[in-house]
Amino acid sequence: MSSSSPKLQEWLCIFPDQEGAHKRRLEARPSHFEGVNASASEGFITWAGAALNEVPADSNPQNFKFYGSVLTVTGATKEEVIEKLKNDPYTKGEVWDWEKAQILPFLCAVREPLKK
Fold this sequence. Notes:
Layout: E1 9-16, H1 22-42, E2 45-52, E3 66-75, H2 78-85, H3 89-92, E4 102-106
Antiparallel strand pairs: 1-3, 1-4, 2-3
């Protein structure tokens, strides 16, 4: 009898920030980035970034008008994805608004790096 691992699915995760979360986001940002890099190395996160309300005037995150975060992750089930993301510093630091979060099965057609 052979056992196989559950099939991995990619998930599109859209996390608006909670109202007034700008300061909390900046405080949690270093530990969030550590976790993102580790999760990307493990293959959990396949793409991630900040969603903004407007194009930034400069490269200083303190001046960014954050909407939230958008990322794609891999997991066998939505519940598995939620469990892992509940441990993110943006969750624990009360940055992401989980009541407005969307986690959707995702089939990527194109994935290209930004060309500067």
